Amino acid sequence: MEPIEVLEKYFGYTAFRPGQEQLIEAILSGRDAFGVMPTGGGKSICYQVPAMLLPGLTLVISPLISLMKDQVSSLREVNIPAAYINSTLSPEDYRGALRDIEDGVYKIVYVAPERLESESFLSRLRRYPIRQVTVDEAHCISQWGQDFRPSYLKIAELIRSLPERPVVSAFTATATDRVREDVVRLLQLHEPLLLVTGFDRPNLRYDVVRSRRKDDALISFLKEHAGQSGIVYCATRAKTESVCAALCAEGFSATRYHAGLSDEERHANQEDFIFDRRTVMVATNAFGMGIDKSNVRFVVHYNMPKSIEEYYQEAGRAGRDGEHADCLLLFSEGDIMTAKYLIENGASSESENRAERIAQELRRMNITAGYCKTTRCFRGYILDYFGEKHPERCGNCGNCLGAFEEVDITIPAQMILSCVRRVQNRLGYTVGASLLIKTLRGSSDKRVRELGLDKLSTCGLMRGEPAERVKRYIEHLEAAGYLKTDPRHGGILLTEAAGDVLFRGTVVKMQVKRDPRGTRASGAGQPLGSAAAPVTQDQGLFDALRGLRRELSEREGVPAYIVFSDAALRDMVRRRPRNMHELLMVSGVGKFKAEKYGNVFLKRISAYEVEAGAS
Ligand code: ADP
Ligand code: MG
Ligand code: ZN
After folding, report:
1. pTM
2. What is the helix (H) or strand (E) element at residue 363, kind and residue range?
3. C-alpha gyration radius of the chain
4. Ligand having the closest approach to the CA of 404
5. Residue ranges of the alpha helices (H) in 154-213?
6. Considering only CA atoms, which residue is closest to atom 13 of ligand 1?
7. Whose CA is nearest to atom 26 of ligand 1?
8. Could you tell me if the CB of 71 is within 6 A of ligand 1?
């Protein structure tokens, strides 16, 4: 069989994704391979297809015990003989699995890295005909990565000790140059094919909503995504609790996950989410590492994350199946204060380069705040950060889709600039943005009076304007080069160019997100909500098939997305197959699954059509 035939027969896909074929060809030719592909890029296929074509066994080292069961279930669902070995097995199951491996029952066996610490286990492995060793989440081998696992260092030893050196393949979604070098060196890869695909995830729609009433914004977003599965990330345990409670009170099917819960509750809640018994998971960043649930349709960040890396990783848990998914960040100025607090109080105090680390984290946070405020393409902003080329506008993010309009802000700009000038003339030094805003809005603040700023003719010029908006004007004037911040004490001063606006009639314009409710447009960045998701051709049929999938998932004891992915259901709705032959053309329906589930799905589709025709 050819690789493409294996892809069709077992997985039901008709074409390889970028990079998959090259990696598979390399592995089959006996060359080591190292694939760096984004989450949802389809790394599993890259070692599973060769596993079916190579003689003997493929051994997969994977760090996530909680996930192995699902990985093995989804292989068994497509009739690939697979097993896993980790500490959750009972002694009988463990011995049974080893016996079956010996008898050559399996093509793919997952093991936890910690197993490699056991000499008796290693000596057993030497007896098996291992033809491929695959290292999933390969970045775990590097101390420079986020999730270092010391046991990963044992892998090279295992490979060396096997009677015949197998081909070695390694995969990860996150690898800086340093981590990449570590992977090649510490796994002792032999002239590997290094394949790095683009990091963009075109099916993810990024958006930011600025709101101080986040619960309202979240609830209206969730109402638009009723019945869909998604994650809401919160910065703290306390927030996680309160948001989850608020959602449950509103009637959403939500559950929660954070490090303060007992192991049992965490496990139960995670299962509820994976099996679609609860649709919304409210969690801290303790949740999600290695969650392979492919039908996560949205990831909402209730608070600004600490870095773009963290954001990209967490948001990236949406839409693994390649179908449309939303990544929404709820932002308010208060998030910056919270993040600062967490950074300054979070770093361990005994660490010698503490100050340096804090400074670095603050820099990262500022870049993230920049993301929240940008009027440019959100995807472009992220890809710039990772140093990847991209078009100016992606056409699938809040900023590209949200209609922007240019407003003339010359008058408020003049008010602000002249106020800066007068403050400086009066005091002989500059003040920071917040005092400036208070002065402009004529607030009866103690400091304003003490410094005599209430005597200035510019005091109270912007009385009716919300502080947020004045702040955004100031930020814009700084970005446009009319103001600058003194890096030493945060005072705001005029640049030379400011004179053009104050005295020479230069017009100042600012991009403002149009308010979808058609009220005043000058409140930059009003909630746009997520622009409507692409209309599905037939939501009714999709829901019917989703219901059927859930019944089958309960019966089989596997998560719904393992029965069929959302992508497969969508394709079924599009094609409306009438017979087995047509059903096999659906993406994600392979031979075995068609035999197992085909008839019930065909029946449900035709029943739906009869009903729809009758009404
Ligand atoms: P990764 O490990 O890279 O995050 P997975 O291997 O879990 O990603 O694959 C993500 C999803 O993409 C799965 O639902 C998988 O079935 C699907 N997929 C993988 N390869 C293809 C392909 N060639 N065509 C269509 N879907 C694919
Ligand atoms: Mg994976
Ligand atoms: Zn865009």
Report:
1. 0.74
2. helix 354-373
3. 28
4. 3
5. 155-161, 177-186
6. 321
7. 13
8. no
